[in-house]
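Worked example

This section walks through a single chain of length 261. The input is the sequence exactly as stored; nothing has been trimmed or padded.
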Amino acid sequence: MLRLEMYDDVTRVVMSTAISRSIGYEVSAYLVRGVLIDVGFPAVARELAAVLEQARPSGAMITHHHEDHAGNVQLAAHAGLPIAASEATLHLLRARPRLAPYRRIIWGTPPHLLAPIIPFTSETLRLVPTPGHAADHHIVWDAEREAMFGGDLFLGVKVRAAHAEEHPRQLVASLRAAAALRPTRLFDAHRGLVRDPVSALLAKADWLDATVDAVDQRIAAGWSDRAIARALLGREELAYHLSRGAMSKINLVARVRATHP
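Given that input, the structure is written out below as tokens.
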């Protein structure tokens, strides 16, 4: 399923499946200045192709390799759409590591990137590295209009579950760097338009910074990951059970331990 929402100069392309809606998940691409930011997931490939045919963007910019954001890069590249993405993102799309079952069920299985990439450069939009959620994560920044397209940088202030490749300390730095750009609008890939974006980004950075510090203190005191997660973050929730532990609070603690000083 796909629907469009208008925000002045920005079109939000909201994508979901029956399964994703049943658990409260949607993901968005954005059309701005004739450019498509992210290309969604394989289960909406046909609908996205129709959007591309109608909107005829000059190019696409990809925030990171996760299948709900970059799952249709092969489709776009095969259609001849120029694409801007980091080399790390393109490498992962070509390699296409095996997805966990829950991700294939929710979003579909993306094909390997085989089509040649026509490089794309925008005069007004630029990819800015913001690692943490993923090593290859970028935001798209429109300095002239003070608009930020955040991919999965924000997601919410107190996001307690993490997957195994996340880097919480990097994410804190990326959140503060993004806030320093002083966006007046932030378009999140899952939450849509975020009000008061600088305050929201800094609130998340402060909460995560304090959480990482509290985890570090308990690691130094000899606590186990499970005990730390239970004390600081509470019991595991739906995401843990649906993903069979791939998205979990204990992962957040484990990722902090992996870089414990």
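What to look for: The CA atoms of residues 214 and 232 lie 8 Å apart.
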